[in-house]
Amino acid sequence: MEERLSIRFASSEKEFLTQFGVNFGFTQVHSKVDRCYFLTSDAKALYHNLNQYAYNGSKECFPSQALLRAELGWSKHSVTKYVEELRQKGFIKTIRNPGRPLMYILEELHTISSLVHSEIVHEIRKELFSIDDREMFVIALIEYKESDVHSKVLNVPDPTTYKELIRQWFLQWQGETSKSGEGTRQQGIPQKKRTGRRKSPIIREEDAEKVGDPIQTVKAREKGEAGILLNLL
Question: How far apart are CA 63 and CA 68, in angstroms?
Fold first, then answer.
């Protein structure tokens, strides 16, 4: 009887990748996608999975949703959610043909504005943030994603036209003076870096006793003690 399965350990990684099991070879992972600041980690995982089905340089693939769910360990809702994220951010297009699985078309990477936008921010990080400032950059990036500048650049066809505006946002986040002056402030660039500290509350004099002002408390106590002495007399 012909042996159909060979149960053994491969002698090398290359042999394991090319001659063992059913998943042969390996797929190129694009660093620009993997390190994109404006794509969630789950959407990246889905993109890489779809890329594995686009054989021989093709930009089209059509794995079934059931297969994607099995390989990614997701629910049907999750697959639908992250397909929509990839579609909204310009990474893929989808075509539905009757009687066939959904077709996914992977867009050319240089045409995806989210990737271009991300690469601009990567360059700014290298220019403005040293190795010791990595944690500060994480905070800046979170705030940038909530800024008016990010919203403005998010869906433009060519983010490179806003490169200086993005740079000025990060400069002002660091507390430096923007070269663009009032013009950039009107476009939503913060005036100074947020430190994450809460401002001290402003306490009005007439409300001091209500919030436990120590001076007022002492005065009240002294007034009370004077009243007790008068009663004793």
Answer: 7
Report the C-alpha gap between 116 and 134 in whole angstroms: 21
Helices and strands (H and E) in the chain: how many: 11, 3
Burial of 179 by CB count in 10 Å (0-12 exposed, 13-18 middle, 19+ buried)?
A: exposed
pTM, to two decimals = 0.70
Q: Hey, what domains does the chain have and what are their CATH numbers?
A: 13-108 (1.10.10.10), 113-185 (no CATH)
Number of residues assigned to the chain: 233
Render pLDDT for 9-63 as a digit per residue (tens, 0 to 9): 777 888 877 777 777 766 778 899 999 999 999 999 999 999 999 887 789 999 9
Contacts of 183 (CB under 8 A, 6+ apart): none
User: d(Cα 96, Cα 8) in Å, to the nearest integer?
Assistant: 42
Q: Is the pLDDT of residue 65 over 90?
A: yes
pLDDT digits (tens, 9 = 90+) for 90-119: 999 999 988 888 999 999 999 999 999 999
Roughly what angle, to the nearest 10 degrees, separates helices 65-72 and 76-88? 100
For 28, 41, 79, 131, the CA distances from 128, given in Å and listed in that order, are 31, 25, 37, 10
* pLDDT band at 2; cut points 50, 70, 90: low
How far is CA 191 from each of CA 79, 134, 178, rounded to the nearest angstrom? 41, 21, 9
Nearest to 82 by CA among 97, 70, 72: 72
